[in-house]
Amino acid sequence: MGETMFAYRIILTVCLAVFPSSCAATPVLTSKISDMSMAIKKKAPIVMKIDVSPDGRYVLSGGFGSFILWDIQQGKKVQTFNHKMHKSPVIRVAFSPDGKYFASGCSGTKLWDLISRQEIMSFYEDDRFDAIAFSPDGKQFLCGGGLGGGLFTRKPPIMKSFDVKTGREIRDFRTQSSVFSAVYSPDGKYILTGGRDMTIWNA
Question: Which parts of 34-184 are beta strand (E)?
Answer without folding.
Answer: 36-41, 49-52, 58-62, 66-71, 76-82, 92-95, 101-113, 119-128, 131-134, 140-145, 158-163, 169-172, 179-184
